[in-house]
Structures are given as structure tokens and as C-alpha cells.
């Protein structure tokens, strides 16, 4: 895949001295879904705002589809759709007119067939003549998505798109996102629902304190930083670990009927075979064994909680 967004040594320092972005370089490929993760204030929204032309960087360059966001901002901006965190809509405007108006702002001619298709795909067609002030929070967010897609952008930014949206609407929105990716649209999303990023994204980027800590394919990230947890259910509860099992990194459950063991799947030897042999040697009967992979949330927390140099 070729990059549709090329970010090179991007920085942003505000007049107050706050460094929102510090020398960030990143290429985003055409047709992929990239999840940008980071705690509040990490720099995610600043980076998106710079790419979308809403904030002026203090250093570095960004190209969208080959267009420099500063010297050829019209060409770059026409390729981008943005769904912001804040719900800002004209309260007395009809839903369908909101979408038509935004399409016109990009210089696109009227296309009623496309507007209808777009509203139907977001379950907004029945609300097309409703004033936006009459809509629920979830429906208003759908209108923001429809506006962002009104000019058929090649790149769609979703900044916390499911905040305040119920589970049913969230699933429907992600179905729309998958369809867009299938059509070749590049999706960049930020979310605090890490299970969404784990489910949806092709690559995961982690930002903290204005620095891009990493950006890797999801499977590679899970393999590199993820660990597995082995749970061993015992036939009879233990009062304490026998001497042969001490110093092995085992934890005994409060009830005494289960042992826990964390191991690295990338290691040449996990130690599981030796552990089971030691259990047998100690006369401890095993009833069942199960494993659990580290979640993206656990990996994310371990990354952002590490002290940065």
C-alpha cells in the first residue's frame, strides 16, 4: 500500500510553552484503518487538527495525497473529512440541508442521489427533514459523519466518534466504517474504547506527551508486547505454594484452587512444560488449564505508564 498521508518531523509548541507535538513522523497508508491511542492531552487531537488545517504547526511538514497542507491547502483539504469530538450543528437546520450545505462548501455540485444514499447508510433518511436540535446525541453524531462524507473524501478522521453513542448505534457506525474502508477510504480514529481499536484497526499508533511511541500492525503489536496468562485449576486447594514451585512467578488464588502464571509467547521456552512436570512431581493434580492473551488495553496502559526519558 502507498502512503496517502506523509507526516515528517511534525511539531507544535504553543505560546504558553506547552509542547503538544514533538518531532512526530508517520506515514498512513491508503485504505487502512489506523487507531491513534493516547491519554487526554497526549497530542492526538492536535495532530488531527494540523492535518485538517485547523491548527498551524511550528515545525515539520504534512502531505495529504501529495498536497502540502500549507502550500497547497485546498488540494489537501478536499481529500479530508473530519468528524470532531464536539457536536456543533446549526440547531434549526434540517438534517438533509446540513449535508447539502457542507457538500457545497467543498465546491461539489448537487447530487441528491448520493445524499440520499449517504443518509440511508447512516439510518438518517427518516430524519432528513428534522431540525438538528430535535435529534438525540447519537443521531447528531451521525449527522456529523454524514457532513464529513458529503464530498466523498479519500481520508476520514474520526475523533472520538462513538462518545455518548449507545451500543446499537455504535455497531451500526462501525459497519459503515468497514464499508468505507472496503471502498478504499483511509480511516484515522481516536477512541477511548480500546476494544473498538482492537477490533477495527489495521495498525495501532500510541501517542503520549506529544511523542509517537510506536505505530505497528495490530497483530505485530499484540505479539511483541502482549503476554499470555495461564490459569491452572487444581483438583484440591493448596494452603501455600510448595518449595518446588517457589520463585517460578506463580500466584496462588485466595481460594487456593488455582495457580496463575504469566509468560511471553515470543520466548524460546515458556516454562509451561517444566511447570506442569513440577506440579506432577509435587503430587498436585490438575483439573483444567486455560490461557488468556493480553488485551490492547493492558498493552496501552503498560506503554503510557512507562516513564519517558
Automatic annotation (TrEMBL):
<keyword id="KW-0067">ATP-binding</keyword>
<dbReference type="InterPro" id="IPR017871">
    <property type="entry name" value="ABC_transporter-like_CS"/>
</dbReference>
<dbReference type="GO" id="GO:0016887">
    <property type="term" value="F:ATP hydrolysis activity"/>
</dbReference>
<dbReference type="InterPro" id="IPR003439">
    <property type="entry name" value="ABC_transporter-like_ATP-bd"/>
</dbReference>
<dbReference type="GO" id="GO:0005524">
    <property type="term" value="F:ATP binding"/>
</dbReference>
<keyword id="KW-0547">Nucleotide-binding</keyword>
<dbReference type="InterPro" id="IPR027417">
    <property type="entry name" value="P-loop_NTPase"/>
</dbReference>
<dbReference type="InterPro" id="IPR003593">
    <property type="entry name" value="AAA+_ATPase"/>
</dbReference>
<protein>
    <submittedName>
        <fullName>ABC-2 type transport system ATP-binding protein</fullName>
    </submittedName>
</protein>
<keyword id="KW-0813">Transport</keyword>
<dbReference type="Pfam" id="PF00005">
    <property type="entry name" value="ABC_tran"/>
</dbReference>
<feature type="domain" description="ABC transporter">
    <location>
        <begin position="5"/>
        <end position="234"/>
    </location>
</feature>
<dbReference type="InterPro" id="IPR050763">
    <property type="entry name" value="ABC_transporter_ATP-binding"/>
</dbReference>
Amino acid at each position: 500500500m502507498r502512503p496517502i498521508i506523509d507526516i515528517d518531523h511534525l511539531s507544535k509548541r504553543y505560546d504558553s510553552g506547552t509542547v503538544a507535538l514533538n518531532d512526530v513522523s508517520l506515514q498512513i497508508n491508503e485504505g487502512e484503518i489506523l487507531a491513534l491511542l493516547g491519554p487526554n492531552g497526549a497530542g492526538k487531537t492536535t495532530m488531527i487538527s494540523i492535518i485538517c488545517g485547523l491548527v498551524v504547526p511550528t515545525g515539520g511538514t504534512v502531505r495529504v495525497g501529495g498536497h502540502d497542507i500549507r502550500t497547497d491547502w485546498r488540494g489537501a483539504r478536499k481529500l479530508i473529512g473530519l468528524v470532531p469530538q464536539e457536536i456543533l450543528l446549526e440547531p434549526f437546520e434540517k438534517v438533509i440541508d446540513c449535508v447539502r450545505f457542507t457538500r457545497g462548501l467543498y465546491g461539489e455540485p448537487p447530487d441528491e442521489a448520493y445524499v440520499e444514499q449517504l443518509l440511508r447508510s447512516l439510518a438518517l433518511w427518516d430524519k432528513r427533514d428534522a431540525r438538528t436540535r430535535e435529534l438525540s446525541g447519537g443521531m447528531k453524531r451521525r449527522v456529523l459523519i454524514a457532513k464529513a462524507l458529503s464530498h466523498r473524501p479519500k481520508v476520514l478522521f474520526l475523533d472520538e466518534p462513538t462518545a455518548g453513542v449507545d451500543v446499537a448505534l455504535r455497531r451500526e457506525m462501525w459497519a459503515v466504517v468497514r464499508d468505507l474502508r472496503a471502498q478504499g477510504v483511509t480511516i484515522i480514529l481516536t477512541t477511548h474504547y480500546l476494544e473498538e481499536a482492537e477490533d477495527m484497526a489495521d495498525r495501532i499508533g500510541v501517542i503520549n506527551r506529544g511523542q509517537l511511541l510506536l505505530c505497528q500492525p495490530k497483530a505485530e503489536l499484540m505479539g511483541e508486547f502482549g503476554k499470555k496468562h495461564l490459569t491452572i485449576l487444581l483438583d484440591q486447594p493448596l494452603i501455600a505454594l510448595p518449595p518446588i514451585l517457589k520463585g517460578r512467578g506463580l500466584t496462588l488464588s485466595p481460594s487456593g484452587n488455582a495457580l496463575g502464571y504469566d509468560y511471553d509467547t515470543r520466548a524460546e521456552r515458556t516454562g509451561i512444560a517444566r511447570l506442569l512436570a513440577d506440579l506432577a512431581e509435587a503430587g498436585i493434580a490438575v483439573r483444567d488449564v486455560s490461557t488468556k492473551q493480553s488485551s490492547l488495553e493492558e498493552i496501552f496502559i503498560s506503554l503510557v505508564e512507562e516513564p519517558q526519558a
